[in-house]
Design brief:
By secondary structure, the protein is of the alpha+beta class. A four-stranded mixed sheet has the order 5-4-7-6, with no helix packed on it. About 5% of the residues have low confidence.
Length: about 150
Amino acid sequence: MAASDSDADVRAGVAIRGVGQSADVNAAPGVGMFIDGVYQPSSAYYTVPFFDAQRIEILKGPQGTLYGKNTTGGAINLIAAKPVMHNGGYIRAGIGNYNRREANGALNVVLGETLAARLATFASDRALLARMSLNALKRYRQQPTWEQTAGEI
């Protein structure tokens, strides 16, 4: 499996055995993405954070019989963690460059003898990078364009 960052944070390209994402934004991906068996139609879902996963299955293609269309290269199936019959949970937090802060966690609660629930959440903040991008955009807009300076010689 090979992964590439094709359009920064918007799309990601994934290829299994050389078959994968086309350069055309409107084309369907060659590798199907499934979360708990539900097809995700856009390759933008490859950039969604995977947390609280029980397992990730990577199936080489074609997988048309099992998963249907858009699985010529294969399929990626993310299986979320299921509720278990004991109370528990976790919290993970991290920091990174450009003032990045993120945290994720899960809580598993037993509600009865045969019933349990699991809640998982994810939060991320990159405020400094957003401020830097906004300042760069303001500076770019303040620069004179060719049309504004064409008559001044």
